[in-house]
């Protein structure tokens, strides 16, 4: 075995490394399929290449959204949080069989969900789930879809329990020590995940699943929507927190320095625990049936929630600057040149951070109640989340994988050049695609439609044309797909690589200001959880009560929307005439 200094994660924790590797590969498989479907949609929508039936568009869109936003992200998360907890506590999980159990549960859930969606295009499979990744009523899926989601989420709950158990075991042996930062990050994230998934669990188990099984006749659509968004905003930070963790504990080291402030990082994660959930109504500014006052409260909370990200921008960039100056960088901005731009792990994460700065601005615009009316349900929103989850998160994960896969397999990365080209190409592709999507939203191009043709209208964007927007989106999508293929190729070839000479050691960044500089109360997880619960009660009790009061717990008698979409114009016209004679 190699010396302590150059030990990889595989050397230290061979059993855990196997589970983490499995989680990463599950994540990559979702990325491969989900990503390819993204290309299919983009080319269809922009009218560049059409081979799917427009009626199947929503099956493809659902698979794209679920596989990327839920499967790819969360499998990667459980992998790196398991790494973070075991590495920073320097001890293995309590019982590796338990670890495999939750992983397998998540896999079974994913397969059920995937097959349910596939039923939408394969006649031999009797399921359907064209409900998009936001799966609220009145769209209805086959029961198998909801059961799969439940298994997946319960699997993630058990993963969280696994991290807590490991920490409790460590605490017994180290009663007086501060929680190491990576573990602190994993635990606070897990706590808000428990809190927010209660909403989606309630929505599925009490309403959507019984409704799809025919046990109840109807549901209150606004109630299931509100419960979804109670979860649906916090889930975006569930995706983001592992990326933030990488920016805090890897980027400073890769830059050649140390994390500027451990206490500030703790404050940030505490703020996410407190504020991630009571803001979900900012996705419902246009929903009738929720009073403006509650929307205003959600907006105010959202604006407070910008703070932890702004603090992150400060701390992470300050750490990078510190690193660059250690490497001989000088000047106000000249230090940027001293950063290790040839390292794909660094460059991928730095570019992801840079794009997140832009994503933050579009998020602030979304969050403004009045300006949201302009962009809601337009392609702008799709541009926003391709910068956030599609780049800040996805690009960070891919860059991190260039470091992690060698750690958990003991094999050297196959090609650093290919990796560097890959992260750059992702950045360029996303610049084209997301910028065009944002702009198109400003002149009203809708999201979630296969047929956004404008021949019948006199359409006048302030800058450019519909054709130019479409061309940029299609070009961006093609570049992203090439980047995705480059990533997967590198991962596969790394797995078959026989070289293991220069593997990086399993470490993370030290700190300039450590936990001893922060008050011990920051580590009081019970206190922060209690406050988070109170904030949720304050933010949600009244809106939920009034939704139930006016729409009923199981709603007025509303049946699910038809899942087959009519594409024959004559029949569409006829059905419109029925409603509006
Ligand atoms: Fe969002 C819609 C508001 C962040 C994801 N968002 C969405 C949807 C998704 C999503 C998926 O208020 C669509 C859902 C659907 O299908 O309908 N979002 C926000 C706000 C933030 C925000 C205020 N969103 C995210 C993140 C996501 C995500 C993170 C995924 C991971 N979003 C909204 C709203 C809507 C919405 C409304 C509803 C819109 C509608 O009408 O439907 C904030 O958290 C953003 C804060 C970020 C910042 C940026 C800080 C900058 C940093 C960069 C540092 C730089 C570095 C690199 C490290 C303030 C941290 C330096 C490099 C060098 C070289 C020096
Ligand atoms: Cu949100």
TrEMBL record:
> Which GO biological process entries does UniProt record here?
aerobic respiration
Superkingdom of the organism of origin: Archaea
Matches recorded under CDD domains: ba3-like_Oxidase_I (cd01660)
Protein keywords: Membrane, Transmembrane, Transmembrane helix
Residue ranges constituting the Cytochrome oxidase subunit I profile domain according to the UniProt record: 27-515
Instruction: State the Gene Ontology terms under molecular function.
Output: cytochrome-c oxidase activity; heme binding
Q: Which InterPro entries did the record assign?
A: Ba3-like_Oxidase_I, Cyt_c_oxase-like_su1_dom, Cyt_c_oxase-like_su1_sf, Cyt_C_Oxase_1
Q: Name one GO cellular component term.
A: membrane
Q: Which residues cross the membrane?
A: 22-43, 63-86, 98-125, 145-164, 184-208, 228-251, 263-281, 293-317, 345-365, 385-405, 417-437, 473-493, 527-548
Protein name (database record): B(O/a)3-type cytochrome-c oxidase subunit 1
